[in-house]
Amino acid sequence: MEAQQGTLSSRLRPGENPRDRLEQHRERGIAAYRFTQADVAEAAGAPLSAVRRARQRGEIPSWTLRDVVPWVIREQARRLELPRDARKTS
Residue 58, Cβ neighbours under 10 Å: how many? Predict the structure, then answer.
């Protein structure tokens, strides 16, 4: 373990971005969080099949916050829309 720490410190200098130098660098915080299909379906109020179809169509490229939130917002808005007949007023 100490030998590995020595190689890391020799490769990484203070103030240097670890993402540029270390291929195994793991993100911390919100960037590291990944959603599951069930999480996305629950947030959107949609069935799992809708999430799977969206993933297949490329609407959800990855399970990160950046990719999931726009789809959830669009799906919620779509599900809240009234049918065309209900929009008509007398």
Answer: 7
Judge whether 49 lies within some domain.
Answer: yes
What's the pLDDT tens digit per position in 52-84? Answer: 999 999 999 988 888 899 999 999 988 887 666
> What average pLDDT does the chain have?
77
Domain that holds residue 55: 31-83
Q: Would residue 12 count as lying in a domain? A: no
Q: Is 72 exposed, middle or buried (0-12, 13-18, 19+ CB in 10 A)?
A: buried
User: Could you give the CA distance from residue 87 to residue 66 in angstroms, rounded to a whole number?
Assistant: 33
CB 24 within 8 A of CB 12: no
Structurally, the chain folds into a number of domains equal to: 1
